[in-house]
């Protein structure tokens, strides 16, 4: 949460694993399902792959997995889709790196009868896939925005927005949700562009990367002294921002709010580096997606529509009017 490279051929890019021997496919073999993530190493996608593997074993499917070489590798994801279709998968689960550029490849797969489900990140438009299993990312941003507003009541807000990068739906949704929840901008989940607000005194893209988050924070501190609030697209960016604040002795004066709910991030909340985070559940996304493909393989009913896989505000400093769970809950349900 950046970009270019190719995932090559089935042997190099797709790891085929037999996860059971349940219902037979139309050709008499075990039905296959594919999972394509943005990267292989991000803990979020590692947990997603674990969820898919476990559910595939339960449902009697063979799981094929692939990933881009880095976040943003659309060409690699296109190659992975083509390889999986050629291998005869019944369905593909994908976290699209480029939510627009991937659409022609998805359409070609769907035209051949393959069900395609987006996980975590919706395509643009969302109905380019059969279904979406994901966090309500607008709500995730909204929750930390509401919490930030209540936590900093009485202060004059000066907000830095450490975003993902232009044009990625998940980044736009979280950004706009935060400003909506904070009451800084009138914006809804259908907006196609990030909103602006007078309280925002600095904005920068981080690609969801810790080092880039630190650099962005350093630049914002130079541009806009007196910051009180930092929104970050995810917890790696949040921890980078914290490093920059601490170097200036500002870690107690500026509050950081984020999204993800990984174990490292929740520990950051527990240790006071991050004020609050919105926790999402990648294992649930993947397991529900695999289950939907298993049902399609069995009864030919394609999955459809949006399924909200849940989001929970995690903080150890509750405020009136905003529902939250503490870091003990967060650590029990985190990933990574």
UniProtKB/TrEMBL annotation:
Keywords: Signal. PANTHER family: D-ALLOSE-BINDING PERIPLASMIC PROTEIN-RELATED. Gene3D superfamilies: 3.40.50.2300. It comes from Actinomadura napierensis. This is Substrate-binding domain-containing protein. Residues 1-23 form the signal peptide. Belongs to the bacterial solute-binding protein 2 family. The keyword Signal applies. It is found in: Cell envelope. Pfam families: Peripla_BP_4. Residues 33-300 form the Periplasmic binding protein domain.
